[in-house]
Amino acid sequence: MLRRLPPLNALRVFDAAAGCDSLTQAANNLCISQGAVSRHIHLLEDWLGLQLFVRQRHGISLTADGIVYQRIVADALAQIELGSRQLQRRTDTKRLRIKLPPTFAIKWLVPRLAHFHARHPELDVQITTSHQHADFNREDIDLSIQARPHASEALNEEELFGEILVPVCAPSLLQGQPPLRQPADLANHVLLCSLNRPDDWPAWLQAAGQAQIDGNLGLKFENAALAYQAAANGLGVTIGLAAFIEQDLNAGVLVAPFDLRVRTDGGYFMAHASDRPVPEGVQLFQAWIREEAASMQQG
After folding, report:
1. What residue numbers bound the domain in which 64 lies?
2. 127 - beta bridge partners?
3. Of 23-32, 120-129, 162-171, which range is least confident?
4. In a domain, 1, yes or no
5. What is the pLDDT of residue 30?
6. Which of these, 61, 148, 204, 280, is most buried using a 10 Å CB contact count?
7. Residues 177-185: what's their mean pLDDT?
8. What's the pTM?
């Protein structure tokens, strides 16, 4: 079927101009003349039969129709760009792009990554961090790990391990004042936590019979890795996840002042898009990370 499309070069110029406040700036961004930008926009307006820009003395601005059309064009061009990158990526079987939360990357994956690289040195692993769920239709990634399932039919998800809450602090905090011998003593200490995990302290305090202590008071950090570092520096007591503080406990950087460990309903989940073939590199990484998660739980 023959599609009735507007001039494609004009769409590209319109998209560039819509993000600027002047034709001159759009021309500089596109490396063409201002006159060429103006001609493309007029051509598109004539084709559509409506005005997209208001020409002002000191620049241009989108009309109401232009604002609506800009969203449509930007989304369409973004899809074309992403689809093109995905097709190019199919020929690059040695590259593996992973998106995961910062603390998972810093405290769990990176310390183990040398094992994977030793087993598969031919793979080029690229890691980005975010607390946001991955969007495989818009982002250039192969695999994601998140602290909660997305519950989407577009994804194949599996749980790697659950969450166990453990208060931890620097060893020096146990030797000083005020004392830190029983959970009630936490009322006299600074509580540290991640902004992304506001329920951890309340959950542990509830289980410890200390619900009267406000777990939301204290110092909060962008991610748990920063809270762990603050605790190691003696700033206070943080609520940690057992999987992420294991090495610090073994090294004596952090200590757990109480025996109580509380399991949450949460966990960490690995996901990939369900509507496309799984590259060999992704399969190799999945097999390896399953082994690492299983050995941690057995230990």
Report:
1. 8-90
2. 98
3. 23-32
4. no
5. 85
6. 204
7. 94
8. 0.70
Q: What is the mean pLDDT of the chain?
A: 90
| Cα 271 to Cα 18: distance, rounded to the nearest angstrom | 36
- Domain containing residue 228: CATH number: 3.40.190.290
- pLDDT for residue 91 is more than 80: no
Backbone φ, ψ for residue 98 (5° rounding): -125, 135
> Tens digit of pLDDT for each residue in 46-56?
999 999 988 88
- The token duo for 142 is 């192969």
Residues 143 and 63 in one domain: no
* CA count, 13 A, side-chain hemisphere, 7: 14
DSSP assignment of 46-108 equals HHHTS--EEEETTEEEE-HHHHHHHHHHHHHHHHHHHHHHHHHHHT-TTEEEEEE-HHHIIII
Q: DSSP code of 213?
A: S
| pLDDT, mean of residues 176-192 | 94
Which pLDDT value is given to residue 297? 63
Question: Do 63 and 144 lie in a common domain?
Answer: no
* Rounded CA separation 205/202 (Å): 5
Domain count of the fold of the chain: 2
State residue 135 phi and psi, 5-degree precision: -115, 100
Across 224-253, b (16+ Cβ under 10 Å) vs e yields bbbbbbbbbeebbbbbbbbbbbbebeeeeb
pLDDT of residue 163: 95
Nearest to 144 by CA among 109, 170, 168, 114: 109
Q: Does residue 45 sit in the same domain as residue 177?
A: no
Give me the residue label for tokens 């080029």: 124
pLDDT reading at 205 higher than 70: yes
Please give the single-letter amino acid code of residue 49.
G
- Residue 121 CA to residue 182 CA, distance in Å, equals 48
Can you tell me the distance from the alpha carbon of 184 to that of 180, in angstroms, rounded to the nearest whole number?
8
CA distance 94 to 121: 10
Same domain, 23 and 145: no
